[in-house]
Amino acid sequence: MTVASLEIQNGATLQMVTNPNDKLSISVETLNGGTVVVEVRCWHTVVQVKEIVESMTNCSSEDWDLSVGMKMRLRDSKTLAFYDIKENDILKMLPASYQISVRTRDGKITKIEGVKQSDTIRAVNEKYFQQTDVPVNRQRLMFGGQILEDNKDLAHYSIEEGFTIHV
């Protein structure tokens, strides 16, 4: 079939599926040190994989994130193909909440516990306020030379466990 025969309009978005019959067998290392093997498809999102693993382990998927390689947390909305996950790859569960640091201009560091990839920058501002009494409206957080927008989440900026942001 041609694009014209499908009456696809100019500016339309197409979704490419490589092969709907392809299945991947991947392993997931659990928080308690066990391993589960799951059968997935490359177009599955990370959240779909987490739901499959949750059904096999009874571990609430809200309590952990998936990672690949050196602790890189996978974003729930992205597909396995986005991360180039292949047959027999090993993913690892990480606790969903973690610690980041906030550094002031004078070098003082405040540790912020219990942040999640889904936390907005505004939520991080509020956690920083709770620990320092610096009003949220007097804070401007930066990471990698970029001012962080209140409505974006930590995942948007790829802020991981142990990273330092600046105020």
TrEMBL record:
Keyword Ribonucleoprotein attached: no
Domain Ubiquitin-like, first and last residues per copy: 24-94, 98-167
Keyword Cell membrane found: no
Organism, as annotated: Acer yangbiense
Record's protein name: Ubiquitin-like domain-containing protein
Keywords: Isopeptide bond
A Pfam family matched in the record: ubiquitin
Any one GO molecular-function label of the UniProt entry: mRNA binding
PANTHER family documented for this protein: UBIQUITIN (PTHR10666)
